[in-house]
Amino acid sequence: MMSSWQQKRIAVVGLGLSGQATVRFLLQHGIRPVLMDTRKKPQGLKELALDKTDGVYLGELDANRMAHMDVLVVSPGLDLRHPAIRFAMAQGVEVIGDVELFARYNSKPVLAITGSNGKSTVTAMVEAILQHSGIKAVAAGNIGLPVLTAVQQADAELFVLELSSFQLDTTSSLTSIASTILNLSADHLDRYPSLQAYCDSKQRIYQQTKLALYNRDDEHTVPQQPGLNQHSLGLDAPQSPDGYGVVERAGQYYLALAGTELMPVSSLSLVGRHNQYNALAAAALSLAAGADFASMRHVLSHFKGLPHRCELVLKHNDIRWVNDSKATNIGATQAAIAGLRSDVAGQLILLAGGDGKGQDMAELAAALQQDVDQLITFGQDGAAIAAMKTGSLQVADLTAAVKQAARLAKAGDMVLLSPACASLDMFRNYQERGERFAAAVQEVVR
After folding, report:
1. Which of 55, 107, 196, 288 registers the highest number of CB atoms within 10 A of its CB?
2. How far is CA 274 from CA 97, 154, 265, 310, 311, in A?
3. CATH architecture of the region 2-96
4. 202-216, pLDDT tens digit by residue?
């Protein structure tokens, strides 16, 4: 496949982590790509072998130059509605992403995971279970490691791919032994014209899969293409003797996996109903890839969770401070509130706000009114969230929100940063936001 590309004009558009990995991959296969980026000074550019490329063009994308290419490998961070990209497509230029290039080159098994929330946690769980089972699995994609870096790891036996809707938009050839849409809630509506369009993007993960695993409590995750081998997952009783769900025996609840009681729900290391579902999904995917039950039990009872995802930052004076900065949409915050509320003896104090990405904040109203005792908002769309709950407090920034929470919190309370918004109005990314939260918590406690 790659030899045929040596005769083509290839442009890599967008030079972030995945774009740079794409450039390195192409160069290693004797292909001299053209490099393009809307930024004047992309980080890491100087580390590439620029003398081996066919040119670097920074700043405003040149539609005519792009239209003279055979293939554009476009970063998931770039909107396909960009006029220059649309013009190139209209001229017959093929537009793909790095995941599609991976799919055309890769010959090893793949597990594919998407959803609005929980996909990084499930991806990491699956990788850990498979590795404990003796399968050399590598997690890649939206979780951080570019797929075109992962595919060159010679000892990898299987890839566990976390895929965003933006990555799926430019992917059509990916085959998988099992795939799942964990859940779907309104997100990225600044890039999609409707919730249905976002759903259609996620549904692409079921193309060419041998087993589709869907959430029976979320109709948007049900495969839309007929004839697929499929199983549903849920936190109720399995729908068939060999199904997947939660069963009760002698007052104890167990994860049920293909007709087997896997482990007590109480043995899971991560708390919250949303994490019970994540564990079930991870086990189901791992089973499809040949994992053993003992490894599932071990990993799911010891898994520490991911940074910035319902992460306990500090417990001081019986007040718990929890960092869920990775909650960049309403659905993630709803899941965090629902999953943690029953574990809070006192007040649940929520810190929320940021760039709402076009979401309808009214969807958050029920959770705020029923399960949140104190709401403190900040950032670009903080006011829109504050309007959903009487008595909410608006502050200037995250540090002020932490200080206000410290004044309100008492023993038995939990202070939860779960913004329901992207971070780019005030921070470089959600990681920086979470780190700023943790630092502010340490400061107010001191």
Report:
1. 288
2. 31, 35, 12, 11, 14
3. 3-Layer(aba) Sandwich (3.40)
4. 999 999 999 999 999
